[in-house]
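Internal QA ticket QA-208
Title: Verify multi-chain structure generation after dependency bump
Assignee: T.L.

Test input:
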Amino acid sequence: MIEQFDPHKGKILRILQPDGRCEEKLKPDLADDTVKTLYREMVFIRQADQRALSLQRQGRSGTYAPCQGQEAAQVGSTYALGEGDWIFPSFRETGACYMRGVPLKDILLYWMGDERGQKVAEGTNVFPISIPVGSHPLHAVGVAWAAQLQGEKICTVAYFGDGATSEGDFHEAMNFAGVFQTPTIFFCQNNQYAISVPRKIQTAAKTLAQKAMAYGFSGIQVDGNDLFAVYAATREAREKAISGGGPTMIEAVTYRFGPHTTADDPTKYRADEELEEWKPLDPLLRVQKYLEGKELWTKDWEAQIKEEAEKSISEAVQDAEGVVEPKPEEFFQFAFAEMTPNLKEQMDDFLAFLKEKGD
Amino acid sequence: MIEQFDPHKGKILRILQPDGRCEEKLKPDLADDTVKTLYREMVFIRQADQRALSLQRQGRSGTYAPCQGQEAAQVGSTYALGEGDWIFPSFRETGACYMRGVPLKDILLYWMGDERGQKVAEGTNVFPISIPVGSHPLHAVGVAWAAQLQGEKICTVAYFGDGATSEGDFHEAMNFAGVFQTPTIFFCQNNQYAISVPRKIQTAAKTLAQKAMAYGFSGIQVDGNDLFAVYAATREAREKAISGGGPTMIEAVTYRFGPHTTADDPTKYRADEELEEWKPLDPLLRVQKYLEGKELWTKDWEAQIKEEAEKSISEAVQDAEGVVEPKPEEFFQFAFAEMTPNLKEQMDDFLAFLKEKGD
Amino acid sequence: MAKRNMVEAINSGLMEEMERDSTVMVLGEDVGREGGVFRVTDGLQSKFGPKRAVDTPLAESGIVGVALGLAVKGLKPVAELQFMGFLPPALDQIICHISRMRNRSRGRFTCPMVIRMPYGGGIHAPEHHSESTEAMLAHIPGIKVVIPSTPSDAKGLIVSAIRDPDPVLFCEPKRIYRAIKEEVPDGEYTIPIGEARVVREGDDVTVVCWGAMVREVLNAAERIKEEGVNAEVIDLRTISPLDDGTILTSVEKTGRAVIVHEAARTCGLGAEIIARINEKALLSLEAPVERVAGYDTVFPLFKLEHHYLPGPERILRGIRKVMAF
Amino acid sequence: MAKRNMVEAINSGLMEEMERDSTVMVLGEDVGREGGVFRVTDGLQSKFGPKRAVDTPLAESGIVGVALGLAVKGLKPVAELQFMGFLPPALDQIICHISRMRNRSRGRFTCPMVIRMPYGGGIHAPEHHSESTEAMLAHIPGIKVVIPSTPSDAKGLIVSAIRDPDPVLFCEPKRIYRAIKEEVPDGEYTIPIGEARVVREGDDVTVVCWGAMVREVLNAAERIKEEGVNAEVIDLRTISPLDDGTILTSVEKTGRAVIVHEAARTCGLGAEIIARINEKALLSLEAPVERVAGYDTVFPLFKLEHHYLPGPERILRGIRKVMAF
Ligand SMILES: Cc1ncc(C[n+]2csc(CCOP(=O)(O)OP(=O)(O)O)c2C)c(N)n1
Ligand SMILES: Cc1ncc(C[n+]2csc(CCOP(=O)(O)OP(=O)(O)O)c2C)c(N)n1
Ligand SMILES: [Mg+2]
Ligand SMILES: [Mg+2]
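Actual output:
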């Protein structure tokens, strides 16, 4: 399929239409129950995302980068992965991290300015959030390369945005992946903006997916608001990766419904009309219509899952806010396996200072 | 023509065959005398290159990076340029720099460990040699962009190798050029090796030229040992550039006949057979046969131009070695337009030290 | 004269220089349409158009690398890096090229340009948004490094930086971007690069600082007065070249010194200042010079950042320590 | 025991660690087939195959960035940067990620890895092949920085670096790669990271140095003896974390100190050493600590490099100066 949809020929993979109709011959085999579950996850993620925003507005959390509008891209891609696979999130991957087993509580804790939110559980193969744009795909390539050398049949997925493709490190990561044929999926969420900078200023290439050709492997452009298309493409890329077929780049064409972060005012750089044009393409709406068409969706069920979501989100918020304050000296403790004498000296002086102050 | 030779379709531009025969319909209009002059320049450059090597062997110069085998690429591309165009050489561009007006004496002076060799004359638009691989195409894009803003109809040419295409800065330069449609030619001499690392380890892409597609502009692969092909492609890329058509990437497929530098031993990483295969493709041989076919070449003439070359090369060597030693404090004098007090203090102490030593 | 905060002051400096000199242009991520994430370049694109206030692709090395070319060809680029935490990708172009063009070409090619970046902690930001790595920059030959601490200085220094014949890195203490409002001269106004300023006179102890720390130090200086200690406060304003003359004159008078910086302690600029004092005023010292600085750790997320950043309490402690010695 | 130069010593350390631990691998430009442009990785590919001695694309950021991933996943990458002059493109990954994984994940993910690079001047090389920017590295929290000055130390330290649980930057003074041959222990041999070595005992003046400067200093120390000055010479071996204990003990004994380094003077490591002496041994000082260092200029091409590099003459002058104070 990936080969059929050559971005150079202007092809883009779309399976689920905005009106809920579905290209049956392309439809991945997802049981109705699975689709319902995934819809439920998307609903949960959207509400969690909303809550994170309001926590910041209430001064209960710091800057937050919302993922509203990108739920299908994040849920569809992560659901296609296997147990041992790794993901490498940037700062807008609340949905992907949650899907891969990071408790919402930890995600919130991190944005509350607490590094402990990034200490994922053993066995949870989610890299800590990487803030420097475009820099972490290299890590995904390194882990994939190691897995390959260790004979593990797993793949790694780097999540990044349209803006990230302009960074030199993106280029080096793609190139290393091609040369060493690492089982890596470069999952680009092209949400049309890098803060205020529109996609067309980011590069003169018609698509981002076609950049893969520069590295000798294939890229595909998918409708990023189409749960089925994202799932299907990622699934195939993963199979290719774990069977020694090397890397793939997936450009999920989507749209950021919210601000870049809580510090951003999108009205400064994009017209409301544009937002209105995208609203009908809402990734949730589409799945809802699909389910409705199959009489698998009812208002009551929607209300019920939303209520359940609210409940567990509230618990997560409580838990995150309930975490005991970090010890002041905590930031000294993870510089090295064993604290250096110089650092120990600084920490002791710091603690002495706190004592004097009477903290 | 550039559009017709799509590297993606495995096309490569070759006009002058190894046996001297010529694709008449593709042949650029170069008067016989011009071809003779260019041949003469190539002969000169090869001999100058040889001399630079032996100067190093005799301990009269430092490390040197020879360009033997790449004469057609450097002569053909520079001859296609106009008066006001700029070139941005890396360390292997003796031929290109010489063609653009840098006296051989200065080139030799530089490799003798003297920065003054890089102080080109006013009006000579040749950037100083850039040693960090892949880093200078950005400068070519910047100068081209400025020229565009200043309304000058000129182009800039960045010279770099196959290895350079792996660096992040190459990517950023190509991308900026595409976005701002700068009149820039990315001239890649793919000489098959980055020191010991063969082209195929550098990237999984079939060609380097196809990398241009990732940035929304075209690239073309040309036989880099074919003076006519290199000239024709560069000429067209230049016309496109100065008429607002934006950047082009040219991959000149060639071969480094000599060592990477005087510090390198190629037998460690490449087989003699390989070198033997390339010898018949020698860029000089080809033009010689072409001229011979037109009865424009004779043994006597060859002997004569070689002798004349030797003569002026010897003069250049004499001049370079005759340059007065730099003043010891010279390296303090070009840090800033006006020396900072701190630096002045350091220089005075340095001079006092020399005095004490009795220098 | 109008009351302006630092953001407005730098903005007016850019505005006036772009009016005065048509070769001046700004480029960077979000500096055009958006006017910069901190609004420092606000209004420049609408006034001078998208060719002189340019939104670029997201690539720091690319931004400063093309700026070098723009400068060599005769334009005056003022490049913005969105945060000093994202300076590292641009370091290669700065270290290997921008700082060296003049020397490499023996004066034939120069690249007068400005690279602006907000820096420092205290704004409750995510990782990489609180760094202070100015000491690394001060170790690079061939560039100048400027750090204003007031709106007026910010305007006077950005204008001087734009007019300087050599590359200037201009670090903006974002924590006080909007904290201080003061009269900022309109029109022609410059502050010479390379000159520190005695912000507060005193004869008991010299406190050297820059950027957002100046305000913290002045606060501490007022409080230590109650203990009968009269502190002289020096705002470096330019950290490279370092105006050690002003520091030494003060230390020779006071005999005691404290250096305050946000950056990690080891190999921070404080070390160089101590080295200069040691070399040129050792005999005037009545106590070891004290460093009140960031720790040798990653800058913590904001639940703990107040512990990392030197504040009045720690500065007071430092002053008391040198006084008690 | 066999007589080895530094290249052979590091090579044997790599060889033995790769034999001992199958997770150890080397990667970089020309490190495989070619065995490194200085032959430090010679023979590794033929012995361990192209999967453990890997030629990579020409991209420094890529090399150390993928190495981070390799390390987190359980391999022990030893990455080579061909020259310290080409470290800058890799600084972003080092500063923003490699030094921070442990802290960022609160210990969940770590990246024990080694980044090797030849550094320093004196080999008549082109631009960017003579740099010494170790002080920048010493300013980065979360990494260790090691610099051997003898073949034996080189072997003992590379082995310790490979076994260290945290990232280690390993700077090799290429000027003396082949200058010194000495008995280097075969088999298991380690030198602890973080411990300086007193190379020569003396009680008149302490001279602190590292890398290729150690040889120059020892030369000067012998010559100054004729003037009745007995110099104690300290080879730091590790510059981060800095073993100030050894320095202070010596300075408390001698009361005088000279620091010698190739790097540019301003904000070089010498400044930090002076700061530590000032903070902890000021009262023992009988003279200002002297810095004999590179100048704040671009490292000159080789017609002038001998003027830039500190040699015995300048070191003698520095020692005489502190003795005469
Ligand atoms: C190297 C680097 N430069 C600048 C920034 C500041 N910044 C944060 S997000 C962002 C835009 C990213 O755009 P994109 O890659 O499209 O991801 P999106 O935010 O749209 O998800 C910028 C410039 C950064 N975090 N890292
Ligand atoms: C950034 C950087 N890394 C490493 C080097 C060391 N080095 C010098 S030339 C070279 C190979 C360059 O290969 P290529 O780009 O193909 O150019 P060629 O030498 O073949 O002309 C390397 C690795 C360098 N000069 N710059
Ligand atoms: Mg985006
Ligand atoms: Mg090559």
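Spot checks passed. The interface with chain B takes residues 25, 51, 56-57, 59, 61-62, 65-75, 89, 92-93, 96-97, 101-110, 141-142, 144, 165-166, 194, 241-242, 244-245 of chain C (CB under 8 Å).
Status: verified.
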